[in-house]
Design a protein that fits this description.
Elements: E1 4-9, H1 16-24, E2 29-33, H2 38-49, E3 60-65, H3 69-82, E4 90-93, H4 98-110, E5 119-123, H5 128-139, E6 143-148, H6 151-163, E7 169-172, H7 176-183, E8 186-191, H8 202-205, E9 213-216, E10 233-237, E11 240-243, H9 245-263, E12 270-271, H10 273-286
Parallel strand pairs: 1-2, 1-3, 3-4, 4-12, 5-6, 5-8, 6-7, 8-9, 9-11
Antiparallel strand pairs: 10-11
Helix pairs in contact: 2-3, 4-5, 4-9, 4-10, 9-10
Length: 288
């Protein structure tokens, strides 16, 4: 039986990237819808739920994407609310690639250093990737500092994480002095800012004797961490192991494809931030 993927995208045009990855990962057909809002979801999901039954349900699944992460989370809530009993299909949320990218960045860092009990700084931690990277690092036992240019935004993100059982310290970082202060004692650094916006200079991070590893998810020059190259994949830079956006991106793609394949294994997976991270962990444990 063919594997059918319902792609729900919050943008006007469904992501060609997500569609192509779905085909490469094992979907036989992709039904892609754009401009999807929460009120649209149940009707579309019912079409997937009620056309196949029993063991055949696993051959239908849902992928939620688009650039609006907040609305994407609302679509996921609507989709799962439509399910009842065994009548359900597996669903994955990866709006803006945030879940797979955050998972890949954290796993890259964990591959070269232990973060438990260590200070981990996430610059631009209120954005989609930074927020999720902060969550995953905290779940691994790191003492996470989540930063924003505005203290109130950092505190709001920290409150949201607290409701999910995750504790981070919110701090404002908006100039070189505050950047230097937040890096004091850091073991791990993640830069998750807007494309083309530098967040920390090489002079600043290279002056931190405790820093062991860093990851920058921005591939557009100037990069977020000065001195890190997009292709860096475990390259030592001034004594610190560095991962650039493309170095992280290779693992992100593997995780994305593995998650799509997982959707068709059974009909009750909900692949959100934590579940996608676990898929990534399993990939690395198998040596894939």
């Amino acid at each position: 039986m063919d594997n059918l993927l319902l792609q729900l995208d919050t943008d006007k045009h469904p992501s060609a990237f997500d569609t192509i990855v779905a085909y490469d990962a094992g979907a036989d057909h992709v039904l892609a819808y754009g401009n999807v809002v929460p009120g649209d979801v149940r009707g579309l999901v019912y079409g997937v739920m009620f056309t196949r039954g029993g063991s055949k349900l696993r051959h239908s699944a849902i992928f939620i994407g688009g650039s609006d992460v907040v609305v994407g989370e609302q679509l996921l809530a609507e989709a799962t609310a439509a399910f009842f009993g065994p009548v359900r299909v597996s669903v994955m949320l990866d709006s803006n690639g945030s879940n797979t990218t955050a998972a890949a960045a954290v796993l890259k860092l964990l591959s070269v250093t232990d973060v438990e009990g260590q200070r981990a700084v996430v610059l631009a931690g209120t954005g989609p990737v930074g927020y999720r990277a902060a969550m995953l690092l905290a779940l691994e036992g790191a003492e996470v500092v989540l930063t924003s240019r505005r203290q109130e935004r950092a505190e709001e993100a920290a409150r949201r994480l607290e409701t999910a059982g995750v504790h981070v310290t919110p701090l404002q970082v908006n100039d070189s002095a505050s950047t230097a202060r937040v890096l004091e004692g850091a073991s791990v650094l993640v830069a998750a800012g807007t494309a083309g916006v530098p967040l920390v200079s090489q002079a600043q991070w290279s002056a931190v004797p405790t820093l062991r590893a860093m990851a920058d998810v921005n591939a557009v020059p100037p990069v977020g961490i000065e001195g890190v190259k997009p292709n860096d994949d475990g390259v030592e830079r001034a004594g610190v192991i560095a991962f650039g956006a493309l170095g992280v991106g290779g693992l992100k793609m593997k995780i994305h494809k593995a998650c799509i394949a997982r959707l068709f294994e059974q009909n009750d997976f909900v692949l959100d931030t934590r579940a996608i991270y676990e898929v990534g962990k399993q990939l690395l444990q198998r040596g894939d």
